[in-house]
Design brief:
The protein starts with a helix and ends in a 7-residue tail after the last strand. It is of the alpha/beta class. A hairpin with a 2-residue loop joins β23 and β24. It is built from 21 helices and 28 strands. Among the domains are: 47-165 and 249-300, 2-enoyl-CoA Hydratase, Chain A, domain 1, CATH 3.90.226; 311-421 and 462-589, Alpha-Beta Complex (2-enoyl-CoA Hydratase, Chain A, domain 1). Strands 14, 17, 19, 20, 21, 25, 26 and 27 form an 8-stranded mixed β-sheet that branches. Strands 12-8-7-6-1-13 form a 6-stranded parallel β-sheet.
Length: 599
Amino acid sequence: MKFSKVFGAALLAVVVGSVLSGLFWLFTILGLAGSVGTTTTAVMPNSILRIDLADNITDSPAVNPFANIDFTSMQAAKNLTLLNVLRAIEAAEQDERIKGIYLNFAGGGMVSSVALEEMRAALEAFKKSGKFIVAYNNGYSQRDYFLASVADKIYIQPEADFAWMGVSSTLLFYKGALDRLNIDCEVFRPTVCKYKSAVEPYILTKMSDANRKQMDELGQSVWQTICSTVAQARGVTVEALNKIADTKPILTPEEAMERNLVDGIIYQDQMEDVFAQYGVEKNFMGKYELITLGDYCSVVGANMSNLTAPAVGIVYAEGSIVDGEGDGMDGNIYGTTLAQTIAKARTDENIKAVVLRVNSPGGSALASDIIWREVELLKKQKPVIVSMGDYAASGGYYISCPADAIVTNRLTLTGSIGVFGLMLEGGDMLKTKLGVTHDGVKTNPSADFGTGVLGMTLRKTSPTERALLINSVDRVYKAFTTKVAAGRNLELQKVLNIAEGRVWSGTEAVVNGLADANGGLKTAISIAADKAGIADNFRVEEVMGEMSPFAAFMRSLGMQAQTAFMDKELKEICNEYNTLKSNILRSGVQAYCPYIVEF
């Protein structure tokens, strides 16, 4: 009796303590979550908008309402959406309090190449207002300089480096490791899809000739875009920029100035003299008013004066495409869930046109087809314009092709019209490396087809099964190319000529007919509003899937706990492992493109 009383009291104390602790943390988190985006900063007269890239600039708003909270430090993280950044730069054009923009890339935020391109275009438009843009940095990387080259004047720290190296694409190959482990890889790919190279890391030790050709031409296209943009802005030649990359990829400030890449070599405190030259006045304390991009975004926000105006809806398709339903917090696009979100936009009478922002390397062909169908239904009722982000390749292009128009950034990777299937057979590995064998019974020859562990089957496919799998990928490839031909109003033979799994840059996509125009999210929104006949008065509405805050909180706790105590190198290793695991565990026919060009 005494034991039961003590045990009961202890149990009650644990339960009550857990509940109170849980409530404390819940309210703490809710308080933090509520603080994100609610803090406002006053914009003072004679202000300079400082773009320091301190914030992560993401393509789509966070699905998780707690995504802006760093659970390791219990601080609100800094994340801005690309749409809000573009809105802020546009607002600064008309804001009399903003005298100019100061580009000073001291922050450590993550920004994609395509986001940089869209920001640069917005800054080009800003310059038409007559306001100044100046740049200063303690050294320039290529990415920094690509954005900074839009400035009227560019300055550099006296002891800094100026990097101009070119672009590259490096792939890891796993065949040697699979051979050592006695793991056999079976690939099912249409013969004509010679450029569909997602399977190559598992069957080759280096790039195939076809893949090398496409990646080289893709890199050249991206590099040409970067060089021509900088050359035009700085009054230099593409040839001169290539000579730097070929002969001296790291320049001293003096060498950069001799080549007209920078306008001055000064210390950062001397930028005050530059501001004075542009007529900016100091405040009553004798200092210049600088407002960061993050703070200015919080001030600008969305236009709340036209809430009754017809809307252009934005639906985001960001991540790898997978089957079924999901909240998207793992960074994937769930086919059924995205289809439901598109249907939500289709049935909303206030939304007159839709921009589908695609930032995806593809994935499941089945899930892609489910999304494609919903885009087709949407197109019958409202204009739908695709805006391409970093990727809109393979399955990402599959879901894009029905649109009324496709707008792609020049640095986007797109196309990759092709499919494949991949199976790892690990029976020998289990036996020779681990001493694990298997046995069983079956009623029919293929009853155990696909049975396995750790993402691997336990036996090789039979000739009959292999023939069925090859027939399946051929059928999906035929459907893919046929839908591209219909959606893009192209002859099927032309689609077949530019398909074969080949990846194209956004610049090339416009030339070969896979896209209609080069531009960013703002361009796509303008086209959508024009096609809907609402260009004179409209608002932008982001159409998001639904998730309960509590479910997001619990999911986020689990995800944060996995990485809370990892150092940077360990996180990179885990990211590589997760990428490899997801590629191996993909089931069914895949329309996927895993590559990117880095600069």
